[in-house]
Specification:
This protein has about 220 residues and is of the alpha/beta class. It contains 7 helices and 10 strands. Strand 9 and strand 10 form a beta hairpin. The two termini are about 20 Å apart.
């Protein structure tokens, strides 16, 4: 799905965070949102994911203006098309790895063999094979990041919104996460990454510098 921002501006707490930003994020490649700390990378990501409203401009998905989507329409978009890997991982420490991936306790039941196979495959791809029944709180930071990616893989979302995915990760986990995101994009998915990591940026097929109002490919 093609995600576009056209001349969007956002003010938070009286401060103009985004000023006339425009970007096109195409399916099949990763798009990096880059800029200095505090430049608005995460804000732009949240606007593109319909997590944050814009004050001016428009957000389009496959050419359709979704800027003024109401709560119900946004929830349908998140449910049907989007997956998020945010800085806090969105992991519930008190729940199992399996529940955090599927968000369904019933998947563990015997009647859900198809879902169980998808769960197994998503964990295998992220290096968490065989850890379905562990509490998520026992995982390291890098493992929680990969668990969040497992959830996106399990959902098979059309669009993946990712905020600083390699921050604080060691070299091994960083490379694994970059490869997982690249593989997600190769399957004709739209992957949008807010990042300051030069390795992550190098792996992306397009880059948007906050404040430049242009993208490079």
């Amino acid at each position: 799905m093609l995600i576009e921002a056209k001349d969007i501006s956002v003010a938070i707490g009286g401060r103009l965070v985004l000023d006339g930003e425009s970007v096109r994020c195409k399916p099949g490649i990763m798009t990096a949102l880059v800029g200095a700390s505090g430049s608005g990378k995460t804000t732009l990501l949240h606007c593109l994911g319909l997590l944050l409203p814009v004050d001016k401009g428009s957000i389009l998905i496959d050419g359709k203006d979704v800027t003024r989507y109401g709560t119900a329409a946004r929830r349908r978009f998140w449910r049907d098309n989007a997956a998020f890997v945010l800085q806090d991982y969105g992991i519930m420490d008190e729940e199992s790895v399996a529940f955090n991936v599927t968000m369904q306790a019933s998947v563990i039941g015997k009647r859900f063999s198809g879902y169980k196979e998808r769960l197994k495959q998503s964990l295998e791809q992220t290096g968490l094979k065989g850890r379905e029944n562990e509490l998520a709180g026992h995982l390291s930071g890098g493992e929680k990041q990969r668990l969040a990616l497992s959830r996106a893989i399990y959902k098979d979302a059309n669009i993946l919104f990712v905020d600083e995915p390699t921050a604080s990760l060691d070299a091994t986990n960083r490379q694994m996460v970059i490869e997982l995101l690249a593989d997600f994009a190769v399957r004709a998915r739209t992957v949008i990454v807010s990042t300051h990591d030069s390795e992550m940026i190098a792996a992306c097929g397009a880059m948007h510098q906050i404040g430049s109002n242009s993208s490079s490919h």
